[in-house]
Automatic annotation (TrEMBL), chain B:
Subcellular location: Nucleus, Nucleolus
Domain of life per record: Eukaryota
InterPro entries assigned: RNA_pol_I_TAF1A/TAFI48_chr, SL1/TIF-IB_Component, TAF1A
Keyword annotations from UniProtKB, A to Z: DNA-binding, Nucleus, Transcription, Transcription regulation
Assembly mode: Component of the transcription factor SL1/TIF-IB complex, composed of TBP and at least TAF1A, TAF1B, TAF1C and TAF1D. In the complex interacts directly with TBP, TAF1A and TAF1B. Interaction of the SL1/TIF-IB subunits with TBP excludes interaction of TBP with the transcription factor IID (TFIID) subunits.
Protein name from the UniProt record: TATA box-binding protein-associated factor RNA polymerase I subunit A
Length: 380, 467
């Protein structure tokens, strides 16, 4: 049993309890030092002596990786022969409807988009209890990557509304801008360009701070780990040296700069209506991108492009690959933004988006060369 | 926004109103292309790339520790480049943990990097002082045995920079006795450098005492004591410096001080040997200063002209624009050999080839006089030899109308000399010559008349020849 596996085990228990924490949240708390992981052994009682192989187990020098922990969750669950987990129903935090709402708020997108995400969830059958619930003893034990899937659904909805081909989204923004200027009193139309500018700025700032914090991260703890008793004095001496050097340099550093540690939060971005510096798009309307047709609304955009045309059938672990230069810059930006939020690789998110599209446009992927397929976005 | 190159991936289809049996606007793409394949550029698998990269480290993924510490290092370097000492210190604080890196290769390389960056920060940071630097240096010296000598030497230089000579000397003496570490050639040179710097400090004290001595009267009771003291110092210094200057390298300050001491004590042969070695030993890198020191020494010793000419000849080949070239020309001119006379002309032209010497009135004066002498002595061929390679660019370089105006405004004497040369080389029709002649010549009237006559007589542009 290793420390990553222990973390996977903790996640299993959270999943069993259906707690309002996703895997990406959990891993982010580990990265932000709210959960002991890197130097967990510091909290062990004095009598427990660690040496030899313990060094390999407890001397961790990497943060937990999403895919790695995800795989281990399934392994541990299967190994323990656990029964089917409690159902994930529509009122659960982990249900895509609720998670989509959470992420839409976090990324400052209009609330009206939520209707569309629910619609996609319904059409693809991703809201079904059987699909969402983890069943280790089923033939092919798998659990759903709730957070990645919710975000993938949002990406698909964005593609439906704006196409994201580096062209249509900007023309639609022009229309929205014109309308908003003329009608200042009405609910403003959602302007993709404005959203992009504000979001990009916030994203770049956050990412920069994140990179700086990571570069300054202190991996080694007060209690040095050593391999055998022979190494103990050397390890302690090195530690002493490092501490002395740090003490000397801390006098050079402005002490007010190091602010207190922030308490763990589920949201990384916060947007409020009262904040006049940064526009909050929650209340904006999607009227600019939808048009009425009889009883229902359709998207003005009638085109769509698939993230993956053909899925890989070989034995590798991935069903598709992601080569940035093949895709539009808007799509790249959206993927980068959401991957940063969840701290996952963009290729993983891209893969999930492709899988959602596969379910949505099922017939498009069928082997027979039937030409007709389309999708309708209907609002009740 | 730029539209990047798109692959066949990106074929949009219509999402229409009715159900799935509606006709599509375009054909479904037929190509059996694998996803994410660049059109026509072969196959590319990004996920494969990461695996390939891990092969070099034995199949293990790169640890986050390694990634964050290298990011930390680049932040420190960036802060140093931008002179943001505060920020650099912050990142340095986190960088110290590389001393505990589990990767032994990186752990061994850490002290040197930390010393280099940390000493830079402590040198410039406003809150740092000599105390902090000393503590830091002492700590870093004692991490492992590899860096002791290097850090000691740099520490001593730092102290020198802050004027703390005694402390620097003490440091160097301690370092001299260091016996640990590998016995490599670099260690040998470091020890020699340490001794030589110690020698240099001792030379400085010797020099001060020598000045004291010169102020004292010979009969003064303190004279002998001081003289003895001075002698002791010099003996120690020479022992320290002589080892270093045997090694090929550029040791100007050491050689200068050593030679000064040897000369003071009358050891002329020793001094000459050192200087000759320094200048002529092939193993030493080519150094114009070595020749300058040797030449000045020979001048002081009133050495024979032929010897001084041979020394300066080499300097002429290395640095033809040096101001000593004018002295060289004088030596050549006074010599009896004809080949020296020819070389003298070459040297003058060589000096004036360089932009830094264009306003050197001595050079122009010499050239004017010497050209006249050479032409009078029927050595037209020599002048033509030199002029052939220069006639394309000297006129616009030295004798343009612009220069005529500005030279005359700045320094009339210079302008006259230049005009004379111009007249001799380009004939009386050249712009420079004519411009100077046109000017008002109350003071230099006679000289100008003589100039005019000489030009007419000796100019290499023969007006009798017709084109």
């Amino acid at each position: 049993m290793t420390v990553p596996q222990t973390l996977a085990f903790c996640y299993l228990s959270l999943l069993w309890q259906r707690e309002a924490i996703t895997l990406s949240d959990l891993l982010r708390f580990v990265e932000e030092d709210h959960i002991p992981y890197i130097n967990a052994f510091q909290h062990f009682p004095e009598q427990m002596k660690l040496y030899g192989r313990d060094r390999g187990i407890f001397g961790i020098e990497s943060w937990p990786d999403y895919e790695d922990i995800y795989k281990k969750t399934i392994e541990v669950g299967t190994f323990l022969d656990l029964p089917r987990f409690p159902d994930i129903t529509e009122d659960c935090y982990l249900h895509p409807n609720i998670l989509c709402m959470k992420y839409l708020m976090e990324v400052n997108l209009p609330d009206e988009m939520h209707n569309l995400t629910c619609h996609v969830v319904k059409m693809t059958g991703m809201g079904e209890v059987d699909f969402l619930t983890f069943d280790p003893i089923a033939k092919m034990a798998k659990t759903v990557k709730y957070d990645v899937q919710a975000v993938a659904i949002i990406v698909v909805v964005l593609k439906l509304l704006f196409l994201l081909d580096d062209n249509l989204e900007w023309s639609l923004s022009n229309l929205a801008e014109k309308h908003n200027e003329k009608n200042k009193k009405d609910k403003p139309w959602f302007d993709f360009r404005k959203w992009y500018q504000i979001m990009k700025k916030a994203f770049d700032e956050k990412k920069q701070k994140w990179e700086e914090a990571r570069a300054k991260y202190l991996w080694k703890s007060e209690k040095p780990l050593y391999y055998s008793f022979v190494d103990k004095p050397v390890a302690y001496k090195k530690r002493e040296m490092v501490v002395n050097l740090q003490k000397q340099f801390s006098t050079l550093v402005d002490s007010t700069a190091t602010a207190g540690k922030k308490s763990p939060s589920s949201f990384q971005f916060n947007w409020t209506e009262e904040d006049t510096d940064r526009t909050c798009f929650h209340g904006h309307s999607l009227q600019g991108v939808l048009k009425e047709k009889g009883q229902s609304l359709l998207t003005k955009n009638s085109l769509y492009w698939l993230s993956t045309q053909k899925f890989c059938r070989c034995y590798c672990t991935h069903v598709t690959t992601y080569e940035e230069s093949n895709f539009s810059l808007s799509y790249q930006f959206i993927l980068n933004l959401f991957s940063f939020l969840l701290r996952i690789k963009t290729s993983l998110l891209h893969e999930e988006v492709s899988l959602v599209e596969k379910k949505l446009f099922e017939k498009k992927y069928s082997v027979t060369k039937k030409k007709s397929r389309s999708k309708k976005a209907r609002r009740h | 926004m730029l539209m990047g190159g798109r692959s066949s991936n990106f074929k949009p289809f219509v999402i229409g109103m009715s159900d799935f049996s509606e006709e599509l606007k375009g054909p479904v793409t037929d190509d059996e292309v694998e996803t994410s394949v660049l059109t026509g550029a072969g196959m590319h698998f990004p996920w494969l790339q990461t695996y390939v990269e891990t092969v070099a480290i034995g199949g293990k993924r790169k640890k986050d520790f390694a990634q964050t510490t290298s990011a930390c290092l680049s932040f420190v370097q960036e802060a140093l480049l931008k002179h943001q000492w505060q920020q650099a210190a912050e990142y340095m604080y986190s960088y110290f943990q590389t001393l505990e890196d589990s990767d032994s290769y990186k752990r061994q390389a850490a002290p040197e990097i930390i010393w280099k960056l940390g000493s830079e920060i402590l040198f410039y940071h406003p809150k740092s002082n000599v105390e902090t630097f000393n503590t830091f240096a002492d700590r870093m010296k004692n991490i492992g045995v590899m860096n002791y000598l290097k850090i000691s030497l740099q520490h001593a230089l730092y102290l020198l920079h802050h004027g703390m000579l005694e402390d620097a000397k003490r440091n160097l003496s301690e370092a001299e006795t260091w016996r640990h570490g590998e016995n490599t050639s670099s260690r040998g040179i470091l020890i020699n450098l340490i001794q030589a710097y110690k020698g240099l400090l001792q030379y400085y004290t010797w020099s001060k005492k020598k000045m004291e001595l010169s102020k004292l009267d010979k009969d003064d009771y303190a004279y002998n004591a001081v003289a003895q003291d001075v002698f002791n110092h010099s003996w120690k210094t020479s022992a320290n410096i002589s080892a270093l200057i045997k090694i090929p390298g550029v040791w100007d300050p050491f050689v200068k001080s050593y030679v000064e001491m040897l000369e003071f004590y009358g050891d002329r042969d020793g001094a000459q040997e050192v200087l000759t070695n320094y200048a002529y030993d092939e193993k030493f890198p080519s150094n114009p200063n070595a020749h300058i020191y040797l030449y000045n020494f020979l001048k002081r010793q009133k050495a024979p002209r032929s010897k001084m000419i041979s020394v300066l000849k080499i300097l002429y080949q290395i640095v033809p624009s040096h101001k000593l070239m004018l002295e060289f020309h004088t030596l050549l001119r006074k010599s009896e050999k004809e080949e020296h006379h020819k070389l003298g002309l070459e040297v003058l032209f060589g000096v004036l080839d360089f932009a830094g010497c264009t306003k050197n009135i001595t050079a122009w004066k010499y050239l004017a006089k010497y050209l006249k002498k050479t032409l009078m002595g029927n050595h037209l061929a020599w002048v033509q030899d030199e002029w052939n390679s220069r006639k394309n660019w000297w006129p616009s370089f030295h004798f343009s109308y612009f220069w005529a105006k500005s030279d005359w405004k700045e320094d009339t004497a210079l302008a006259c000399e230049k005009a004379f040369v111009a007249g001799l080389l380009l004939g009386k029709g050249c712009r420079y010559f004519r411009y100077i002649l046109k000017q008002d010549h109350q003071i230099l009237g006679k000289k100008i008349k003589r100039m005019k006559r000489s030009v007419k007589k000796y100019s290499i542009v023969n007006p009798r020849l017709s084109y």
